[in-house]
């Protein structure tokens, strides 16, 4: 009898549940979702879903509607889509810049946290312009738009052109007092372009944007050093001569190490950041004796990088935000002082002293002397 019961239980585990089975032809997968505000501050939601019907010539359907909430917009989608709308496979949520310029826009994404069938790994992107224009974009030389857009974001992230922020990580960053959130920024100008990173306030409101080079510097300060870090600079003290940039050089930073020391002195926080990196020279448009003058080029790189770090930190402190996450260090090492300013950390960080030291070692200049 025991063997019979054990065998019955084992067989039951192999049986596929089919109570709520639904054919894929009867489902409308919202792979791409857009959120906008029109000129009268009415919410506009747009959705792009793949079509699995063999008879359909267009394999993507999109719909844009005005609705009071995201959940209400799904009802309008169901009025026109032939399948039941679901967000469990969403790849990207596009948020228009007009939406992010308001406090607490993050609450619009409430359905994704309320419904367990929805995914939290969806990428969050700010569109510099109307998000629905991106949703309606139909390039003939690219794969399905949701797949193309997600690959575009991921590829840019591998080269540290942008940050990759999912819905789950955005929620964590929004609730965390020691760091402010940042998301990928996208622009449509005939084609889709990842322009860099949008930095947000503690309330989630858009503050300002940074381009690819400053995003790479931000990633280094965050100690997020995976992927590629290419930089191009003009050699200090070498003026340009002629048409071509014969004073420029490029390198790729590798094996980056970031160490941060935290202190509190004279009623303000102090952070000393030590950045070390080994670099590979990838381009040099001026003569240089690599055997005897390598140290000169290393010092040139250090000056450029330090200037870039200081400029970025100055912008961040002026905006009273902290996308670097220095508040996490303050809480960990100076908790007694952090505790009194945790609810206004952006303001406290704006008065902090941040010193960045850069050390560069050229590991390779290529096979050409």
Automatic annotation (TrEMBL):
Family under the similarity heading: Belongs to the GerABKC lipoprotein family.
Primary site of residence: membrane
InterPro entries: GerAC_N, Spore_GerAC-like, Spore_GerAC-like_C, Spore_GerAC_C_sf
Keywords for this protein: Germination, Lipoprotein, Membrane, Palmitate, Signal
Pfam families noted in UniProt: Spore_GerAC (PF05504), Spore_GerAC_N (PF25198)
Domain Spore germination protein N-terminal: 20-184
GO cellular component: membrane
This protein's name: Ger(X)C family spore germination protein
Membrane topology per record: Lipid-anchor
Key word Transmembrane present: no
Spore germination GerAC-like C-terminal domain location: 195-366
Record GO biological process: spore germination
UniProt keyword annotation of Membrane present: yes
Subcellular location: Membrane
Gene3D superfamilies for the chain: Nutrient germinant receptor protein C, domain 3 (3.30.300.210)
